[in-house]
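Example with several molecule types.
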Amino acid sequence: MQATAALTVDHLPPQPPPNVIRFGMLTFLASEAMLFGGLIGGYIVLRSGAGPGWQMPEALKNPTTMAQTFVATIMLLSSSFTLHFSEVRILRGQRGGRLLLLLTLVLGGCFLANQAHEWFSLYHEGFWFNTAGIMGSSFFVLTGFHGMHVFIGALLLLAALVRTALGLITPERHAFLDCSSLYWHFVDIVWIFLFTILYIL
Amino acid sequence: MNRLAIILAQFQFWPDQGSTLAGDVDRLFWTLTGVCGTILLAIAFVIIYFLAKYRRSNPNVDRSLGDKPTLPAEATWTVIPFFIFIGMFIWGSIIYFHKNQVPREAIEIEVIGKQWMWKIQHPEGKKEINELHVPLGKTIKLIMTSQDVIHDFGLPAFRVKEDVLPGRYTTEWFTPTKTGVFRIFCNQYCGTDHANMTGQVYVMEPQAYAAWLRSGMNPTPIVQAGGELYRSLGCSGCHEPNGVVRAPSLHGLFGHPVPLQDGRVVIADERYLRDCILLNYEIPASYEPVMPSFAGRLSEDQIYQLIAYIKSLAANEPETASVP
Amino acid sequence: MANGTSTIDVGTEEFPALPGQEKGTLTGWIQDLVFTVDHKKLGLLYIGTAWLFFVAAGIMATLIRLQVAWPGNHVVDPATFNALFTMHGTIMIFWVAMPLIFGFANYVVPLQIGARDMAFPRLNAFSFWLTFFSGCLLMFSYVAGPSLYGASGPPQVAWFALAPLTSRAFYPGPSVDYWSLSLLVSGIGSVTGGVNVMTTIFCYRTKGMTLYRMPLFTWATLTTMFLVVVFLPPLSAAQIMLTLQRYAGAKFFEPLAGGSPILWQHFFWIFGHPEVYILVLPAFGILSEVIPVFSRKPIFGYPMMVAAIVLIGFVSAGVWAHHMFTVGLNSFSVTFFAFATLVIAIPTGLKIFNWVGTMYGGKIRYELPMLFCLAFILQFLIAGLTGVMLGVAPFDWQLNDSYFVVAHFHYVIVGGIVFGIFAGTYYWYPKAFGRMMDNRLGLWHFWLFLIGFHLTFDPQHFSGILGMPRRIYTYQPGRGWEIWNLLSTIGAFFQAAGALLFVINLFWSAWKGKEAGEDPWDAWTLEWETTSPPPDYNFETLPEVRSRRPLWDLKHPEDPDWKFE
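Resulting structure tokens for the full complex:
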């Protein structure tokens, strides 16, 4: 119990232990979930209000787009697994962790590239924020918001990769990697919901 | 000083009771005020009593009472308020459902809100602005919509108030019980001149009302105006029996269930007709979605006239109905 | 997780002072405030910011009251008036009440649970500065120049900014954007602050401080922060949608393109009603600390008090649509929300009864914090009862959006929350500054504010019943509202005088107040164990707790509480 306090100066606080940081991150993700929950809820309300008048454009429903998006979804989901195994390896100090992390980043990048391609082709089909009434608004705000999160998650993972390479993330000190990967998994789960309501239903 | 005298002369505590609903609402109000006031006074009394009795400077008081189990007391003051509140809830709900049932025989008057005025039109076609003339003792149903932002048509003396929204109809009804002038307020903040979006309701004897309707210019009744629109816009070309395109007949439609293509069944009310004219997605079963949307081509007035005309078609029997 | 982390090594390294920062100089002091990550300093910064904005929004309120003091008065023009009440409402909620809640949570909670600081001190500073600068952003709208799209100016959309009034069609300039973006930024600050406080409470309680032994203020703060983390994001989502609607052509709330203006109201009130409880729960917590200490008796029914707090937190999620009874919801929704509204009154009532139960058999001291608590109980009771009356659907057609509603929620926020905050300030001020607040000034403040409060808001019930709508900048004579409005305006000046004395007292007592010592109130929670003001590291030795009243155990070793647990 005897804490050795620095009694004189404005000390910078010590780094909180990893379990505390993880708890904070989970709480933060709860609020992120409510943010997406709000957007998805709004989408559901608008869509049920519009009834059968709700028609997504053909560009979204043709088999090629569906197949591409499905592959991208699979890539994003499998990136969660590669990330998990990468984390396990890094925490155990085994080899291959960094490679798996890089693979995760590549998979995430492919997903983003597909999203960008899809937006681009939709724009050329004349489907955009301000066209097609609330359908366009809802589709782009949901995918755009999620895409932004994927992008931020990718930046975090990139930073984690660099920190691993620099030896700043070790089996003893890994809160940054923990949080980035929690964030990444969260973004994946959100995509499962979005894929279901935007493309399948 | 003079101003103060005027202010004191204006002292008022309770609004007029101008409709059949007012009595019900006021009874509920006074009962609730009574119950709540009693609770308040009882608690205030207990607090003051404790404050006096258990003040620190009072040595001659038994203070050994604090260690009793707390749960029985807590259960008491959870359960009793619960039943009081449930009672209030049930009573309130009864009045609420009463208010929700619009009597069948009602004069339907159109109200359109826009920044910052009320446009009102009677079924006979008479129009007024910021004024509403109604006959005594008849049930009045207001069908309201807005041209821009959300307004609220509040009639304190009649104890009714309902928001007026763009893009949809809301209704409120009342039966005035005394003649006189009553006030209309816009209760929902709607922009710069919200404070001046007011008006008067004139409740008149039925004969006086009839005379008032006849006075001035002789306008086209709403249904007739709707009928003219119905033909000039080409609705009759499809929706009449000998039309060129197969389209559902509008005779006897209003107020009846319509089976839709997606399997749902909706009642053909004002909302349904409005959406059919403007958005055109609730396609009746076994018809093709070929009707063009009239969004942007019709004013709120014209939409209302068309709906009133379609309603009038339902009032006649389908076989005997003919286009006037 | 509760006990495992209680022994935190605060570190033996000595960090050098920041460059240019010297103790005792003005620049050093300012730099200290700007760079600090200490929860106590940040707490005081939060509270100081709140009182700063309180003065600004209070002046706005006085102008509003002057304008409607009598019919046809002309103090400001309509556009200015509309901006005044929009800014008054928004600032009072987001930059007065919220920072006060966060300030008290910051200052008191780590001390009460025996922690050395918050879990994430730097995040804490981040949250504070976001809150501060978002408030500045909103205030900046008063001086901002025009944008490409039109003239600027303060927002005039009322604090709940009903769509479609917020569309570019009605306000083409950036005024609405100042409103929307500043709320977005302050929302991020509040959420990160909430995450921080929750993590602190869950992970940094000292040894032996189980959840069941936590002080009630900490419990209330925990529930509040949960509500912040969960219910602020929907508001942020709505602000994002609004901004996209204004600038990217999205159509969410645009009725003519299939959007729904009602959707905005749902979004706003899903946040807006829990917000009331976000603000009032910590006030409940303050009462639950003050009343036992000044009745010299432990709180009556601690388990039920905790249960009531948590229950209020949960039920508050299901009452939002009672703000929307007049928009034409279907009757099932109306009945459901009317019922939920009545249900939430029951745990609230339980709390009031338990406070009264705490006084029963006590030894009551009439100190300033206690006086404010007593006023709180009665005023909050009235607020709750008018709330129940408003929750009964038929009244809503009479009273919704009238001055009755204005009176009701000012009873909640001023009569309840502000009085609770005053009680908390008088209670914890000696801890923060080591000096007592001046009693005579405090009494003047109490009575002036109490009289002013009732003079202002009691008459508004009557003008509301007589049909006076909210947010009107003028009205015609002869509607019976004159006398009520005049009284109300006079009351506003009493309140202003009271608030002024309070602010003077804050400064005066820090300078000339009586020395307080560690524990001036003979209280029982951990914050009174350390010196006043506490050192940077709070406790020289992290204390160990064996009951709900650790200091009682310390002072009465012959009769400790833990024997009965």
